[in-house]
Specification:
By secondary structure, this protein is mostly helical. The chain has one domain. The chain has 16 helices and 2 strands. It has a two-stranded antiparallel sheet with strand order 1-2.
Amino acid sequence: MSDTEPKGQPVPELPKPKSPTAAGLVPWLVAAAIAGGAAALKPQLPDSDYVPSPSVLALVAGMIIGAVPGVRAKLGAGVKKVSKQAIPYAVVAIGFSLEFGEFIRSGEALSGLIIVLCAMSSAFAGALFFGRLFGLNPRASMLLGAGTAVCGNSAIMAVVPTVEPSDEDLGLSIGVINLLGVVMVFALPPLAIAFGVDGARGGALAGLTVHAVPQSFSTGEVFGDAGLDKATLYKLVRVAMLVPVVVILSLVLAQIRGAKTSGKRAGIPIFVILFVLAAGARAAGLVDSIIEIGETAKPLWEWAKVLGKFVLAMALAAIGIGLDVRTLVRVGPRMLIVGIAAVGLMVAVTLPLVRTML
């Protein structure tokens, strides 16, 4: 040791970095535990159409756990990753159970596409009409229209480069769509059942009207396995329509501004393509092999669906933990009214079409 160095003082040790792998696993384990608990609780509840699906139970449990002081602050960033990364896996796994060939042969593909276009058009028209009625900025109305018609906040963010809204309008529209999406999860099933729409048709209605992808799936699951299949199918058709929606908005705004917009084009999410491939594998009989786990034997596609439903419940549990209801209710009243009117018109147009055409 040189004379210039302090004598008798230990050299401080640098703190050991925490393992990012271990820390990153905690939100996944918590979400899996909640999903497992919801799956175990569901059979103990009364057998009724009004009893929530396991994924909705997981959402509620996540919201309760997230409300415990300190939990959301500790797990907030992690559960966002869980919900974002788990949803595509759930989509693809559920896709293996879809009887896509029967869907095409039955003629439902054409009638279904007509209903999708009517549902999305009514949502956009409602957002623009009521937005003008209540004095919203047209750009804010377009954000609400995209979020309602297509796939919630993902659609809003996809059209932001094209619409170029203010930060305030962007933040408020995201808050409104989040709030109404959660409300739809609980409100749509009893409404549909009251009008005689249940089973596969109830799931189709969920896929056609509920805002975000996981919200739509969990609502469709309330109507049983057939409902979940239809919710998945129709929701992903809406997601695929995001591309023409962005193109149409670009053309409309270019006409208004008298110049080309600077917006970026959106692409079809990769999980939608993988979902189609999974459905194609089922149609080709590639996943019909019987697999025995324990004392239970099921086709491979059915095991994939079981896994997909569990991963979906994990995603909903993670969303529930990260969902701060207090921030959702602090949205602008005019934008909230327009959002309610847009989704209300969408349901009013879509429900009778589902009853008569599907």
